[in-house]
Amino acid sequence: TIYLRNYKYPYETAHLLGYLGPIDQQELKKLSDIDKEIYHSGSYVGKDGIEKVYDKLLRGKDGKLLRYIDARNNIVGSEISELPVEGNSLMLSIDIEIQKLAYELLKSFKGSVVMLKPKTGEIIALASSPSFDPNRLSIGDFPYFLALSTDDKNTPLFNRAIQGTYQPGSVFKLVTTTAGLLYNRWDPKRSENCTGALRIGKRVFQDWAVHGYVKDIVKAIEVSCDVYFYKVGLSLEPEELINTAKTFGIGELTFIDLPNEKRGFRTSVEIHKKRYNRDILGGDMANLSIGQGDWLLTPLQLAMLGAFIFNEGIVYKPHILKKVLSPDGKEVIKEIKPEILREEKRIPKEIFEIVKKGMIQVFQEGTARGLKFLTKYPIAGKTGTAENPHGKPHSVFMCYGPTDAEDPNDVVVVGVVVENVGAGSAYAGPIAAKLIDKYFDKYPYKRQTQISQNKQSTF
Prior knowledge:
Strand content: 15-25%
Distance between the termini: 66 Å
Helix content: 25-40%
CATH class of the largest domain: Alpha Beta
Radius of gyration: 25 Å
Number of strands: 20
Number of helices: 18
């Protein structure tokens, strides 16, 4: 039996759903004795995405046909000895309207969008561009597959959401803030005069702008002052910043139900010494503190970082599968429950509140204030510009919202990376804002009263 798929939204969902293809020799060799009863030469199997991860749930069981052959090897009769069993149906957490918009906003660029529910880990949208048509791969269009596989410039088969790794840029300042306060190296009320540059040793480290008087760390997050965070970084021991980055999930797998997820990269004292033949020095700490240098994260990890902040130290395992259903879709066989992936109890609530306040100010008055014209809903976020040694910087943006939702279960997190276009507020931010707007137009929420909004703590 050959299973054919008709993917209704091929380019929009290619990296999510994957595609089918004939089982190859390597896959046959890896089969266990039990799997050999399910798969055989000629079987069509999931090659990527959900199709690959949940192949056994989707495929069911082949039927068997007995053929009767005479002495001259002629077929003289046949009968069905075993009827085929249809595979299960899967309900995904994806909202197809949001998924379609995410791809539409991305398709002119290289990049990725991830939207998820921080209180459950459910993925609402996960888009990667450039994309491809899985329908052509599922019918065995080998020349098309070869063209995709050898397109080194666009890498359309590459799922940027979980395999693309990028420097976090200024989004990392939220990690630096947390480290400085957690280890009591920095007073959150400390002011600095951000003149646009800071000399460290013989080198001058530039800021992206002259910010003048920055009254406290919340204001520093709002305006994204590099000089301020250079100084926060210099106040820390390298291990303190590195350990905090680990706590935020940088360099850690999320274990999403998609194949071939990359873990990104998180430096260490040992790695740095091996790579550069020296200890981590002041200049290194300055770079690391603003998200440059030896940090790499995926767009999914970017969104998970936002979920960590919103949940104040709790991260749920991200997942696309929501329910396993009977073949006719009428019976729920299994429902995926929220599963805590990581829980951090060392960071006090007061620190998260400071970080959140800074993120709210980014949207209200700071580097992302222009997004107020693109969404009706208040969000908290952080822009970033990720250095790229191969060309123009990448645009990075992470946010959660709405910040006035009464029920935290209504809140979503969005992570966006757009390659080779520059500042996060110019490209990635508008994509996130438009997705937020579309989502909450579709799913209205109950807003907090003014009294409850005013309960946000100050320091």
